[in-house]
Design a protein that fits this description.
- The chain is α/β, with parallel strands linked by helices.
- It is built from 8 helices and 6 strands; from the N terminus they run βαβαβααβααββαα.
- It has a single domain, classed as Rossmann fold (3-Layer(aba) Sandwich).
- Helices cover about 40% and strands about 20% of the residues.
- Helix 1 links the parallel strand 1 and strand 2.
- The relative contact order is 0.20.
- The mean pLDDT is about 95.
Amino acid sequence: MKHIGILGGSFDPPHTGHLLIAEHVRDALELDEVWFIPTFVSPHKDTLQTSPNERLEMLDRAINENDQFKLSTVEMERQGTSYTVDTMTLLNERHSDTTFYFIIGADMVAYLPHWHDINKLTQLVTFVGVKRRGYELQTDYPIVQVDIPMIDISSTDIRQRIKAGKTIKYIVPHAVETYINERRLYE
């Protein structure tokens, strides 16, 4: 039986916080891999600043140095609004020999009651909650808690820094920073 972590999100852009979360959960739970799944259209976000292909390219560049990180395009292939329950149903059908662990920050733990078809989803995946400043890891839904080093980075803050002409060095992987600069994203 394989044990795979799933880290989903818009990744607009991906940053070192995403990588830190994935690596520490992978290590703590002794997962075989962590799959990064960028959403096509997020049910939790109003708009995305970059195209699906740009987000895929940035994410590929962000994770390419870790052999235990994989990029899954399952939501991009399906297009439309990306509901986790649909993604996990599909992944469970395709990988019946795998136990999946869906990694979420404390902000999403608090939002679990509002997730699409949450009761079915809790039967398909084990949720893993990690701390995030300003949120508690408390819910009525079953979650595994993993302590990680606190790092206060968000994609929203990165986009704001770029618009303000501030550095994003070390907040995103170098390859992502280079791609953003070359394409003049988020300006």
